[in-house]
Design goal:
Structural class of chain C: alpha/beta
Number of domains of chain B: 1
Largest sheet of chain C: 6 strands, mixed
Order of helices and strands of chain C: EEEHEHEHHHEHEHEEHEEEHEHH
Radius of gyration of chain C: 24 Å
Distance between the termini of chain B: 15 Å
Largest interface: A-B, 40 and 40 residues
CATH superfamily of one domain in chain C: P-loop containing nucleotide triphosphate hydrolases
Structural class of chain B: mainly alpha
CATH topology of one domain in chain C: Rossmann fold
Radius of gyration of chain B: 19 Å
Helix content of chain B: over 70%
Strand content of chain C: 25-35%
Helix content of chain C: 25-40%
Strand order of the largest sheet of chain C: 5-6-7-3-8-9
Order of helices and strands of chain B: HHEEHHHHHHHHH
Strand content of chain B: under 5%
Distance between the termini of chain C: 26 Å
Oligomer: heterotrimer
Chains: A mainly alpha, B mainly alpha, C alpha/beta
Largest sheet of chain B: 2 strands, antiparallel
CATH class of one domain in chain C: Alpha Beta
């Protein structure tokens, strides 16, 4: 029998070919998810439209009432749409990427034993989690968010410069990493207790809603907490302020508007450090 | 449906009362989850209030509501989320999909009344557990407008009960989709999104453009929450308030009749299909 | 293939609420040692909660023990997870590792990439297993639509596609009918013989053990009670054989010298004995006129039940220390 021909992971191999293999495997896992979901066509279609409808209803409610008031403390509908669209776009993309780490999904894997199945396969654990809950039905929300964002960009009269493009793209990337980090932390907590899930929801879904509106509408306490304690304001609020040509609050230097692509990955790195602790804890206790 | 209860000419009040009691008690099984739920509701309440206060800016009154009214409005809607199941409810469709409804049929009770009793108990439980603490907190932190006088309280209470009745019958109807489709959850998503917008949960209906309010006036959705809040705030008083409550009664009767008829069709279908 | 020395694992079990509760230390496995050679099939038995699944979890690298040395094929399971699990196959009867909504062959194809099995080798193995397990009729069926027996066969193929050196089977025949059970046992025997796959089998179905394993290990309360040949377990700890005698008429005194009276019901009397049956039969026929005689063999199931219930071996294990 020809056993030697099977290459084992851990064997020496080029960094490049290893990256290609892992990326390929990730896409295969995503494709498997997508194909599985496509089996239930009607259910998939209903879910796809239904999940966008909730966001649409929320934004429509806001858009419908704003003519009565004029502005949201000086922010036009277009300008709010900019913030709202950025947050929603980043959050839904994050949800597509990090769905496997979302606490209900991850604790589901732990309870059903499929987490053990991941551990019994010779592929990186995190890669398998990334490829475990790819909710393709959320794609409609990506389009909706992109639409709201596009409306925001055109209605707020942004001067379209490379710098503005960089700021907005960096904002989205930073938010994906930031909220992805929150998902990872929430998922990791379920190795200890599932009762913490609701608490994390305040941060993830609450945080997303918080930064969907200009942060100067919140009280000092809330605004400072989500600027200096949990640096959510750096993600989209500061970049958008700068793109709109408004000054940053608290006399912060302009540099603060550029930090989103740094703040997000930092959060994600911290989250994955915590994840490693969680996985080690799991190895000590099993289920 | 009527075939399922040959002996009960009169509804068995004691049975439904005990079902309701059970539904009430069940809500207190997970106090920790309830506490976190309360905190989540509170946090989102704070965000919604901030948006409304910012919208008002320096305007004293918009569409007949003051800032204080708008804050009370938010407090009430956040307090009612669980009691009125404003995010949706899928218990019935679950039992249908799992086939448990077949065993429910063997018992000598009316399914609609049975679920209504259970949901009433659940609603009261959630109101005590989540609603009252939330209202108290809101009143303490931001102050709140309260119904005016005994008539105000009477009308508000009546209107709240009717809001539950309309909401329950609507949710029950949506859940009945499970008799025909395995994708009732997806259908439900539509219904809950419309419920959130149309019942005034997302924004007070008074702030919407006139054309949209006119459209909504032809639907039962305002009766599922917005009416109650307006009666509470005293936006509607006297004959106007009684008329609003009468509209709620009408919708409640219509929706319950519809629910009963759809349920009986669904059950007949279930019998034909053999579960 | 496997060496385990002084394996110990405890769990902290929380009792009561989060605040006022106290935690209790539970010893899941205490001081277990054994080794398994390449190509062996070992039945690993024990009641639920005996420490069986804790041992398996340590061996598969899912759990880190408190103390003790464990190597599987020269690797420490929990230290080098990916290299270790690349050489393992595992089938858990209670759940599938296949993608629920995908056709079986697509799941297998995905696993080919996960385990990085070369194309040619994969085709060869898939051909072999398709033939041996008769997968053909349902390779295009999604896992959710398979019968239990089909699913188990597909899972077995999935566990062996990457030519593992060690196969863990957990309740591989649970819930199957006799024919399906036999087919699976036959297959396991075949891959063990032709591919030198070492098999560790945990099961409650002693039929699996009798048909597959020459060696059994019995664990209870975290300690290994028995490790040896199945045959000698039966000889040493099996209940006595039973002689069921139908006398012409109910005997006035059913007692027969040299035999243990187990019970009498009219003319039917049951005796226990050990060793060969000839002498007891001769004694019974000499005792009174006999119409019919039958010899009932003790069942391994009864033996093992006796061991669990009576703690028969616990005393022996304690003496050994």
């Amino acid at each position: 029998m020809d056993k030697s021909s099977i290459s084992r992971p851990g064997q020496r191999e080029g960094l490049f070919s290893s990256a290609v293999y892992h990326l390929h495997l990730y896409f295969l896992l995503l494709r498997a998810q997508a194909r599985s979901q496509a089996v239930y066509r009607l259910s998939f279609a209903l879910d796809a439209v239904g999940s966008a409808l909730i966001t649409l209803a929320e934004f429509a409610a806001f858009a419908l009432v704003i003519p009565r008031f004029g502005t949201l403390s000086g922010w036009t509908l277009g300008e709010v749409a900019l913030l709202y669209g950025l947050a929603e776009l980043a959050f839904v993309l994050m949800d597509l990427l990090f769905g496997g780490f979302d606490a209900p999904n991850l604790s589901g894997h732990v309870r059903s034993g499929s987490f053990n199945t991941f551990l019994l396969r010779p592929a990186p654990l995190r890669l398998q989690i990334f490829g475990s809950d790819f909710a393709l039905r959320r794609i409609t929300r990506v389009f909706l968010a992109a639409g709201i964002l596009a409306y925001g960009v055109s209605a707020s009269g942004i001067v379209w410069t490379p710098e503005a493009a960089f700021l907005l793209a960096g904002s989205v990337l930073g938010m994906i990493a930031f909220f992805g980090g929150l998902f990872v932390i929430g998922g990791t907590l379920t190795f200890w207790t599932v009762e913490s899930v609701e608490a994390m929801n305040v941060l993830t879904y609450g945080g997303r809603t918080l930064i969907s509106y200009p942060m100067d509408i919140y009280g000092q306490f809330l605004r400072k907490t989500f600027t200096y304690l949990l640096p959510a304001a750096f993600l989209s609020y500061f970049p958008v302020l700068h793109v709109l040509g408004r000054p940053l609050p608290d006399g912060l230097p302009l540099l603060a508007a550029y930090l989103s692509p740094l703040v997000g990955p930092l959060m994600l790195a911290a989250a994955f450090a915590f994840w490693s602790v969680g996985v080690r804890h799991y190895g000590g206790t099993g289920t | 449906m009527q075939a399922a209860l040959p002996s009960s000419a009169r509804p068995n009040v004691a049975l439904y009362a005990s079902v309701a009691r059970l539904g009430f008690r069940r809500q207190f099984a997970y106090p920790q989850a309830a506490l976190w739920g309360l905190i989540t509701n509170l946090f989102f309440g704070v965000l919604r209030i901030a948006v409304l206060v910012a919208l008002f800016g320096s305007k004293p009154q918009v569409a007949g509501l003051t800032v204080q009214d708008a804050i009370t409005y938010t407090g009430l809607t956040q307090a009612f989320i669980m009691a009125l199941s404003l995010f949706g409810w899928t218990d019935l469709m679950r039992t249908v999909h799992r086939g448990e409804v077949a065993s429910d049929l063997l018992r000598p009770h009316d399914l609609l009344y049975w679920w209504a009793a259970q949901d009433a108990g659940r609603a009261v439980g959630q109101f005590v557990l989540r609603g009252l603490p939330m209202l108290t907190l809101f009143a303490l932190v931001w102050g709140a407008t309260f119904p005016a006088g005994a008539t105000g309280w009477l009308l508000t209470t009546l209107s709240l009960l009717l809001a539950w009745a309309c909401g329950f019958a609507f949710r029950f109807l949506v859940n009945c989709a499970a008799f025909w489709s395995p994708d009732a959850v997806g259908i439900g998503r539509f219904a809950w999104a419309v419920l959130g917008l149309g019942s005034g949960f997302l924004m007070p209906l008074a702030f919407f453009p006139q054309w949209f309010q006119t459209v909504l006036a032809f639907t039962p959705f305002p009766s599922m929450m917005n009416t109650t809040v307006e009666v509470w705030l005293g936006v509607k008083t006297g004959p106007e308030a009684w008329a609003a409550v009468a509209v709620q009664v009408g919708w409640a009767l219509l929706l319950f009749a519809l629910a009963a008829s759809v349920l009986s069709r669904g059950l007949r279908r279930l019998e034909v299909a053999g579960g | 293939m496997i060496t385990v020395q002084n394996l110990k694992k405890t769990f902290r079990v929380r009792r009561g609420g989060l605040l006022r509760g106290s935690s209790v230390v539970m010893e899941a496995v205490r001081d277990v040692s054994f080794s398994v050679g390449r190509g062996e099939i070992v039945g690993y038995l024990g009641p639920n909660g005996a420490g069986k699944s804790t041992t398996i979890k340590v061996l598969t690298g899912l759990l880190v023990p408190d103390s003790g040395q464990v190597t599987v094929g020269g690797l420490v399971p929990w230290k080098d997870r990916r290299a270790h699990v690349a050489r393992l196959g595992a089938v858990f009867g209670q759940r599938t590792t296949l993608w629920w909504d995908l056709p079986v062959h697509e799941s297998l194809e995905l696993l080919r990439h996960v385990y990085r099995v070369p194309e040619a080798r994969f085709r060869q193995n898939l051909r072999d297993f398709t033939e041996l397990l008769e997968l053909g009729p349902f390779l295009n069926t999604p896992a959710r639509a398979l019968s239990l027996g089909q699913r188990m066969r597909a899972d077995l193929a999935a566990a062996l596609l990457h030519d593992p050196e060690l196969l863990f089977l957990d309740e591989p025949t649970v819930g199957l009918d006799v024919v399906a059970k036999e087919r699976i046992r036959e297959f396991v025997r075949h891959v063990n013989a032709t591919r030198e796959v070492t098999v560790l089998l945990t099961t409650h179905d002693l039929g699996d053990v009798e048909r597959l394993a020459r060696r059994v290990m019995i664990i209870d309360h975290g300690s290994l009670l028995y490790d040896g040949a199945l045959a000698s377990l039966q000889a040493r700890y099996g209940s006595p054989r039973e002689l069921v005698v139908d006398y012409e008429a109910a005997p006035t005194d059913p007692q027969v010298p040299g035999l243990t009276l187990l019970g009498a019901d009219g003319p039917r009397v049951r005796y226990g004995f050990t060793g060969a049956a000839a002498t007891p039969i001769a004694r019974v026929t000499a005792h009174a006129p006999v119409r019919d005689i039958a010899v009932k063999e003790p069942e391994i199931e009864a033996t093992i039940r006796r061991i669990y219930e009576g703690g028969l071996l616990r005393d022996a294990a304690l003496l050994k220390r």
